[in-house]
Amino acid sequence: MKLPMLEISFYDGEYIGDAALLTKLCEIEGSVVPDGLPPYSELEETLRALEMCAERYSTPHPVSECFTVFIGRGTDAKVKPLMRLDVMAREGCASASVLSENRPCEDT
To answer: Which of 21, 28, 74, 86 is such that its CA lies 20 to 30 A from the CA of 46?
Structure first.
């Protein structure tokens, strides 16, 4: 069974319940399926999709120290949210909280 594409949306600022208050930086759509192996986890697939399409310095940079990443799967008409990453980047170091419906919150 082929899964719908991932939709990865990057926003400048800290999410406080309303994405409309954030500045959209960019959006990436795509899917990565391993050949002959079990499917990747959502985070692994996201990482591989970003690696495949990213060009260094080709996207806008956040202005603030916080940015938010929404990861969903589906089509333009209907995207099912999978997780949200709340990221803090300061002085060359980054940390993130990964929030998902089906897993406990993880900090990294």
So the answer is: 21
Beta-sheet strand order (sheet of 6-12): 23-30, 6-12, 66-75, 78-90, 93-100, 103-107
State the residue for tokens 């208050």: 21
Residue 40 lies in a domain: yes
Kindly provide the b/e burial profile for residues 48-60, where b requires at least 16 CB atoms within 10 angstroms of the residue's own CB.
bbbeeeeeeeeee
Residue 47 lies in a domain: yes
**Number of domains, the chain:** 1
pTM of the model: 0.85
Confidence of residue 70 (pLDDT cuts 50, 70, 90): very high
